[in-house]
Amino acid sequence: MAKPLSEDLRVRVVQAVNRGMSRRAAAERFGVSPSSAVRFVREWRESGSVGAKRQGGDQRSHRIEAHRDLILRAIEAKPDRPLEEIAGMLESAVGASFAPSTVWRFLDRHAMTFKKNPARRRAG
What we know:
Blueprint: H1 7-18, H2 23-30, H3 34-47, H4 62-65, H5 68-77, H6 83-94, H7 100-109
């Protein structure tokens, strides 16, 4: 992901627009896209800030976290339950559809791993 443009550049674009320059002209003068200049000015007028917003990060884990208690109870009842089974249980119990990878990330966030016993892997 690209880095956000500097706050100094954002301020200069907004100041140029406030002095009467069009957004497109200010964008061309400072070497940014016209859509960026429009967003900078809109953000400044709405919030008074031109700083970049946070990038990346988790956007949707709250969906599965809402069913935390149900998942943890199911794992307590059967600790070696497969990810697909947990996803299916969520679908049937609450109607929420989750991929097994989403369930895995949930379990990983909660430090829940189910490793097979190394002693059982040896040949008899």
